[in-house]
Specification:
Layout lengths: L1 E8 L3 H12 L4 E5 L12 E2 L1 H6 L12 E10 L2 E11 L2 H12 L2 E4 L5 E3 L4 E3 L3 E8 L6 H7 L11 E9 L7 E5 L6 E8 L3 E9 H6 L4 H16 L8 E3 L11 E2 L2 E3 L15 H17 L17 H11 L4
Parallel strand pairs: 1-2, 1-9, 2-6, 4-11, 9-16
Antiparallel strand pairs: 3-5, 4-5, 7-8, 8-9, 10-13, 10-14, 11-12, 12-13, 15-16
Helix pairs in contact: 1-3, 1-7
Bound molecules: flavin-adenine dinucleotide (FAD).
Flavin-adenine dinucleotide binds next to helix 1, strand 2, strand 10, strand 13 and helix 7.
């Protein structure tokens, strides 16, 4: 039996942030991930300056390069406006591997299946033992399944369906484009160029509303592919792949004894833009802090709204989950 004071299940942004913070404080920490890094992760890879700040990362210190956007193009039906901004794009394939390595924590390739709890701690697959357990394994996190299924129910109304593709492409337009509500999509489509000749394109929408319309997200992928060809001269080279995650619900119930849920496993992505990297990192840091300092696990400051929480934020949330398209 392999023992560690803290075991983190999942080495994405939530897991690596928790691992780095714990490791820096001298904790005995082990990360288990089902994949060997670098691994593919479906994600547009748009990150905010707040994410860099939380990661204590200066753009020039990141070896794989950011692309920085000075404006975002918002398209909604006939409306098009360019919002000045400073935002960045990264490739998750590179970014997650770099963050995990930077954490300094030991990482083992292992798919966690069974977890049991007793008075002293947790046993994973009869092979690992820990006093503190952090669930950071995304939507299908086994920690959530084993210890939180009752206390942290998920609402189908907040489940997303997505399809995306990332491929090498010599893009000419260096800006990020977002198309909202096209063809009645309860969500948006994106074009996100990346440094060193990569492009990420995709569509995401609320799963329950799509199925109420008798639609699959694939129809909207078809609309996007046609638009990219028509307006950008891009022919998508292969079929996309999909992933589903949940947007933020109530924050209670994300801790049980010495077990914590973080990131997508705690369904923390913002309701207005479906941004999940920032909340994953914040929650990983907060879980580490709660363990190290014996504090409450507080998620109130994990980015709840990408657009600031005002009228526009609330309008987006409403349009995704309830509004007429
Ligand atoms: C198509 C798409 C586009 C997105 N675009 C953006 C965006 O542009 N910006 C943004 O901020 N957010 C975006 N998101 C959301 C964002 O990707 C997630 O919210 C974020 O990755 C959550 O991080 P995490 O660390 O919680 O989980 P993950 O990044 O999913 O990491 C979980 C890790 O757990 C491992 N794991 C899973 N199961 C097990 C197991 N049983 N045992 C061991 N390990 C396991 C996985 O291999 C993985 O490495 C997007 C999501 C999708 C699907």
């Amino acid at each position: 039996m392999r023992s560690a004071e803290v075991i983190i299940v999942g080495g994405g942004p939530a897991g690596s942030s928790a691992a780095r913070h714990l490791k820096a404080a001298g904790a005995d920490v082990l990360v288990l991930d089902k994949e060997r890094f670098p691994r593919h992760k479906l994600c547009a890879g748009w990150i905010t300056p707040q994410v860099l700040c939380d990661l204590e990362l200066a753009p020039e210190a990141y070896p794989n390069g950011f692309l920085t956007f000075e404006r975002l193009h918002f398209h909604a039906k006939l409306l098009h406006f360019k919002a000045p901004c400073v935002q960045h794009s990264i490739r998750r394939y590179e970014f997650d591997a770099w963050l995990l390595e930077r954490s300094g924590a030991e990482v083992l390739e292992h798919t966690v299946k069974e977890i049991s709890a007793d008075a002293e701690g947790y046993t994973l697959d009869g092979a690992f033992r820990c006093r503190y357990l952090i669930g950071a394994a995304g939507t299908s996190c086994p920690v959530r399944r084993a210890l939180f299924a009752q206390s942290l129910p998920r609402s189908r109304a907040l489940q997303t369906a997505t399809l995306e593709l990332e491929f090498p492409f010599e893009w000419r337009d260096p800006d990020c484009h977002l198309w909202f509500f096209e063809h009645g999509l309860p969500g948006y489509a994106w074009y996100v160029p990346k440094a060193r000749g990569w492009l990420n394109v995709g569509v995401g929408g609320m799963a329950e509303r799509l199925s109420a319309r008798g639609e699959s997200i694939r129809i909207h992928w078809g609309y996007l592919a046609a638009k990219l060809e028509r307006e950008f001269g891009i022919q998508v080279p292969e079929a996309p792949t999909g992933y589903s995650y949940y947007l933020r619900g109530a924050l209670e119930g994300v801790r049980s004894g010495n077990a914590f849920l973080t990131g997508d496993s705690a369904r923390l992505a913002t309701r207005d833009m479906c941004e999940g990297i920032g909340p994953a990192i914040r929650s990983g840091l907060q879980a580490a802090k709660a363990i190290l300092e014996g504090e409450r696990y507080v998620l109130e400051d994990a980015t709840g709204a990408s657009l600031g929480g005002g009228l526009i934020s609330r309008g987006m949330d409403w349009a995704f989950t309830r509004g007429a398209m």
